Amino acid sequence: MKILGWAGAAALAVTLGATAQAENIKIGVVAPFSGANADLGQQIDKAFDLYVKLHAKDIAPHTVQIIKRDEGPPTGANAKTVATELITNDKVQILAGFAFSPSAIALAPVVTQAKIPMVIANAGTAWITNLSPYIARLSFSMWHHGYPMGAYAFDKIGCKSAALAYTDFPPGKDSTEAFKTGFEKVGGKVTESIPLGSPVQVPDFTPFFQRIKDSKPDCMYVFIPSGAHATGVTKAYGELGMRKAGIKLIGPMDLIPDNKLQDMGDAAIGTIVMGNYAVDLENAENKAFNEAWHKEYGKDSYPDFMSAASWDTMHAIFDTIKKVNGDLSDGGKFIDAMKGWTGKGPRGTVSIDASTRDIVQDEHAMEVIRKADGKLGIKVLGTTKAVKDECKELKIGRCGS
Amino acid sequence: MPQFAIIAVSILFDGLAYAMFLFITSVGLSVTMGLMGFVNLAHGAFAMAGGYIVVSLTRNLGIGFAPSLAIAAVVVGAVSVVFERGLYRRLYKATDLEQVLLTIGLAFMAIATATYLYGPIPKSVPLPNWLQGDISLGFRAFPTYRAFLIVLGVALISVLWYGFEKTNIGAKIRAAVDNRRMAESVGINVDLLFTLTFALGSALAALGGGLAIQLFGLSPSFAVLYLVLFLIVVAVGGLGSLKGTLLAALVIGVIDTAGKYLYAEAGGFFIYAITVIVLLIKPAGFYGRE
Amino acid sequence: MAANDTTAAAMTPPRDPAATAARDRAAEYLVSRHRYRWAEALPWLACIAVFFLFPDRLTFGSQVLVMVLFALSLDLILGYAGIVTLGHAAFFGIGAYTVGLGAAKFGWTEPVSGLFAAFVVASFGGFISGWFLLRYRGLTLLMLTLATAIMMQEAGNLRSDLSGGYDGLPGLVFDPLLGRFDYDLYGHTNYAYALVVLAVVFYFVRRIVYSPFGQALTGIRENVRRMHAIGSPVHWRLVTVYTIAAGIAGIAGALFTQTNAYVTLTVFDFENSAKVMVMLILGGTGRLYGAFLGAAVYMVLEDYFSKLSPTFWQFGIGLLLVLAVLFARRGVLGLVEQAGVYFAKNKNKGAKS
Question: Are A346 and A285 in contact (CB under 8 A)?
């Protein structure tokens, strides 16, 4: 009996030893590193690198290996090819990143087939998470900002009527649809809805805005991709003296990405956006995040909402690796373990909705101000706690399926 | 003033400012293609280089916006001579396709270099006070910067017109565009002329690049992003024609602006529709040689 | 052909045996040009070798094959007929959306018949636009084709309820190939499928190129006036080849949609038209295998450089293009041929000494 007991203990020790074995987990990062949107990739990539650098020890004895590939233009096809190869050739166990919705959409069937978890750090088309049970999103859906902005603009900013202007691609339509739904629900009147051309080129915004200026709405809700377009919007808005004419500029936070804000000048002051992050957001994690960022990348480099979401993306991945103790053999188990994850990050407390695998986060109404130190910054006007993706809550269009 | 008249004036004003940018940036391309039949797809890269020089001068050295524009034009013009003598020259006798390959290659390299030097985040420039704000004409306020674009454009056109039509060099260039062999046989040094016009065209592109920062922002992909637009102006205007390029810039600038203002839903359509219509009727463009 | 030879011989009775021999050699040369050479097996053997050597990389491999097919269709018009276009993506896009819409809206999920549908629809588009546009040449034609492609993209965006706009048509599901082979994660089925389609199309393109029709096209490319003068129906010949090339580009587009199970409006991008042209010129125009080499070299190097440096890889590609123009005037295929000639000479030398 005694011998058997010893043997049992030994066997137990062996099993324990096996589960505590150090795993090297391969994470494939797909982000746009080249082309017209290369700066988005940079914002994502820097945050990933920073998190891994500072927190690699958290998952000891396990280690992660990051393999980066260029997402390329938002065609879907390119991202699909490189991400599939990350799975088949480089044998990655987790995919992370994805700035563009088409990339995530194209890849959804692949990750379902390969049973590889795919954690989205930006792509914002609302219904992406419905496409595969292996997708989780840490960034936002267009509805996170657009929908609450509708009621806020009507009640608090004093927009009784609003003109909508959006870059003519699905996130733009998504965002304006979200705003319109929220805005009209409380009695707001949409005067017109203007597409601003393709996301590829920054257009000359002046004729579009001149038209809106002539129709004199209270507010102008603008969605543009947060790359080069954002600066163009502020410049045209400023040049045309629209604020003086009494038309307020509002929108999702893509209008004033932190890394371009200082370049926008006085024209940006007074812009009110709804969003989940700004460098000036006050919480301990954000302060530490910004300090670490400036220490690593210099004082003139700023994180933005994509960086904050990417930081949380890596945070959630690391926490889940700990939770499953480095066992990535079953992607489904990994995603299950990630459901309901809650963490504190630069955006405050965020969590992953267990039923939709989409982010739940606080939304802040923020106004651009000139700070005491002479730099541009934001002031939080109001906060809505724990906002879910309303598109899926209200089951609108594809979000309902 | 009735409402529609105000709208018409404002469309004309915005369209004119846009047209001036198009003209300044495209005219060099038109002349080089007209004179040598050289397809220079790196033209946008010269414009981008001009833009980045303006950014560096204004931001890092604190030089004013206007002098920075001038310096950028001169520097890029001078550097372009190096490229012309060192690389382009070898391919004058080559096919269009090889020229396309070479210049696209150069544009790619320029994009990567700019990304390396300036990063991918779009840059803007601080405008001096006298270019900010707007000018009110009672019934309407016009952005000062656009008024500046128009004034600068008109001034440049006058100088170019004088140079082209009234000076000896201008006459030689026109002769060479019309018939290169004949021009050479009467003793005109077409090679030298080409180097000169190439440098001038690149300098103007650099100026256009500097002016565009305020309109579109400046990122490395500027080198190829607006190339199609410039090619359209050149094709619609007619190769090598100053008058044609100007007319094309005006037509495209104004109609595009009007389209965006009046019928934004189909905003992207207008430019291409005009291109197709003009070229179907006049295949060589407004003032091109058939 | 044989009848022609005899009549020619009857008209000019052989006087000088040397002249007869020379004429025989010339005839022999002309016939031999379209005979299959052993070297032609090399690219196909390479493609098959890739299947076994790099089983984990076939998703990328199938994308290369799609681009080879696309470049081949461009070679037919650019290389053989001298039609310079910057709007070839229009037909690629038509093909891509034919199978995409077919699967998404009409339940037409059988892949092979989808290719035929794409060929028919894209050819039709090519015929219509070719009939209008091929009266023009040079920069005018360039801009007209470019504008046509972009206007199609804009039209697609206006009707994004149908096209899905820039988010595209997601989750397309196609039937297993021939009812038997399902699409695996590793892209084995896709690669084999693309390779077979490429081989079949290549066979037909080769037939066309070496037919009298193909020779007439080369004639048009080299000297339009003379072809007019000898009464060749130049416009119709150009429209015909443009129609065929458009159809083949449509097949490439359809393969693109099927292998990706996804399509967005970006297939109509100017970039797509420009890239395929750059690939073809890089490989060498008017020589069939130039499309092969160009697309493969460009994409493999792009893949390699972008792994090396995801941010600055364009520098490498740019440098490649510049060097190719300066040192390989007839494209990569030209280099290969030169190397072949060089070795053949050396071998002869070795034999003599």
Answer: yes
Pick the CATH number of B3-281 from 1.10.10, 1.10.1070, 1.10.287, 1.10.3470: 1.10.3470
DSSP string computed for A186-200: TT-EEEEEEE---SS
Q: What percentage of chain C carries pLDDT values higher than 90?
A: 35
How far is C266 from chain A, CA to nearest CA, in Å?
Answer: 6
Q: Where are the beta strands (DSSP E) in B11-140?
A: 134-136
Domain extents for chain B?
A: 3-281
Q: State whether A39 and B122 contact (CB < 8 Å).
A: yes
Kind of pairing, strands A94-97 and A118-120? parallel
Residue in B104, B225, A39, B48 with CA at minimum distance from that of residue C269: B225
Is the per-residue pLDDT at C10 higher than 70?
no
The mean of the pLDDT values for chain C is: 85
Extract the residue ranges of chain A whose pLDDT is less than 50: 1-18
Q: Do A85 and C63 touch (CB under 8 A)?
A: no
Contacts of C353 (CB under 8 A, 6+ apart): none
Amino acid sitting at position C100: G
Find chain C residues with C-beta within 8 A of A75's C-beta. 264, 266-267, 269
Query: What pLDDT score was predicted for residue A19?
Result: 52
pLDDT at B33 over 90: no
For chain A, the distance separating the N- and C-terminal CA atoms, rounded to the nearest angstrom, is: 60
The tens digit of pLDDT for each residue in B177-223 reads 788 888 888 888 888 888 888 999 999 999 999 999 988 888 888 88
How far apart CA A396 and CA A261 sit, in angstroms, is 33
Per-residue pLDDT, A17: 45
Phi, psi of A376 (to 5 degrees): -80, 150
pLDDT value, residue B215: 85
Q: What are the chain B neighbours of A264 within 8 Å (beta carbons)?
A: 124
Backbone phi, then psi, for B214, in 5-degree steps? -65, -30
- The 3-state DSSP class for residue C217 equals helix
128-167 in B: which are within 8 Å (CB) of A? Answer: 133-134, 141, 143, 145-146
The separation between CA A323 and the C-alpha centre of its own chain, rounded to angstroms, equals 24
Is residue C244 over pLDDT 50? Answer: yes
Residues 6 or more apart whose CB falls under 8 angstroms from that of A277 comprise A253, A258, A304, A305, A308, A309, A346, A347
Which DSSP symbol is given to C77? I
- The rounded distance, in Å, linking the Cα atoms of A39 and A192 is 32
CB A238 within 8 A of CB A327: no
Does ipTM come in above 0.90? no
Check A200 against B122: CB less than 8 A apart. no
Cβ <8 Å between B141 and A241 = yes
Interface partners of chain A (CB pairs < 8 Å, 3 or more) are B, C
Helix (H) or strand (E) holding A67: strand A63-70
Per-residue confidence (pLDDT) for residue C349, from 0 to 100: 60
Q: How would you classify residue A307: left for phi > 0, otherwise alpha for psi between -120 and 50, otherwise beta?
A: alpha
Torsion angle of the four alpha carbons A82, A83, A84, A90, in this order, in degrees rounded to the nearest 10: 90
Determine the average pLDDT of the residues in B122-137.
84
Q: Which domains does chain A have, with CATH numbers?
A: 11-140+283-357 (3.40.50.2300), 143-275+363-400 (3.40.50.2300)
pLDDT at residue A271 in the model: 93
pLDDT for residue B290: 61
Cβ within 8 Å, pair B90-C326: yes
pLDDT digits (tens, 9 = 90+) for C148-202: 998 998 888 888 788 887 778 877 888 788 877 777 788 889 999 999 999 999 9
Asked if A214's CB is within 8 angstroms of B7's CB, the reply is yes
Residues ≥6 apart with Cβ < 8 Å to C92: C70, C249, C250, C252, C253, C256, C267, C272, C276
Instruction: Measure CB to CB from residue A239 to each of B143, B217, B221 and give the nearest one.
Output: B143
The mean per-residue pLDDT over the stretch C223-230 comes to 84
